[in-house]
Amino acid sequence: MEAALGEVLGPEAALSKSTVSRICQAIKDEFDAWTTRDLGGIELEYLFLDGSHFRMHPGAPAEPVLAAWGITTQGAPVLVGLMPGSDEGHDPWASFLEDLVARGLRAPLLVITDGAPGLIGAVELVFSYSLRQRCLIHRCRNLLAKVPTHAQDEVKRAFWQIFDDITAEPGDQAVAQARQRAHAFADRYDKRYPAAVTCLLDTLPELTCFLRFPREHWARIRHTNLIERTFGETRRRTKVIGRLPGERSCLSLVWAVLDRASRGWRGVVMTPAGVRLLQELRRQLHHPSRLEEVVDQAVTPAA
Question: Which of 84, 129, 250, 265 could be stapled to 244 by a disulfide with Cβ–Cβ 3.0 to 4.6 Å?
Answer without folding.
Answer: 250
